[in-house]
Amino acid sequence: MRFTPEELEAARDKLLPDVVAPGLRVLFCGINPGLLSAASGHHFARPGNRFWPALHLSGFTPRRLRPDEQGELLSYGLGISNVVQRATARAGELSAEEFRAGGAALAAKVARLRPAWLAVVGITAYRAAFDAPKAVIGPQDERVGGARVWALPNPSGLNAHWSLAAMAEEFGRLREAAENA
């Protein structure tokens, strides 16, 4: 997948459709789509993003899916959405108001779709969207839209604090909790 700088810039502010269905085991929720994801129409599309490898290594999927296979997630009871829907080059372009509004919209979506777990992929996004400044990675005490919540590390290749192995282990803790629910 190759896009010109002009094609990527044209994806700015585009919306990336969710991959969702009612009654999912886990609804994964990214911060917001990047320009490559919006241009391609696929979540977590940047080659350095570790979402797809972590999902597989944790046991959520029997093989590593490619971003263009995101629709297969539904067959495993999994889905993808975002806290903020509009695409940007960096999450730092989003305002606090966008995070709060995105959190409210996400809570309504979760209440409508009724997943067992909401997994917010990025602790900073979770903190900003749900006014939880002291939240840490892992299960949260609060529920969102009736779903239990797990904050996961941001799988971006820029997140050097988490190795792929450690990230997959945390995803695996969520998988075990979802299976035992």
Automatic annotation (TrEMBL):
GO terms for molecular function: hydrolase activity, acting on glycosyl bonds. It comes from the Bacteria. InterPro entries: MUG/TDG, Uracil-DNA_glycosylase-like, Uracil-DNA_glycosylase-like_sf. It is an enzyme of class 3 (hydrolase). CDD domains: UDG-F2_TDG_MUG. Pfam families: UDG (PF03167). Its EC number is 3.2.2.28. The keyword Thylakoid does not apply. SMART domains: UDG, UreE_C. SUPFAM superfamilies: Uracil-DNA glycosylase-like. The keyword rRNA-binding does not apply. This is G/U mismatch-specific DNA glycosylase. It comes from Streptomyces evansiae.
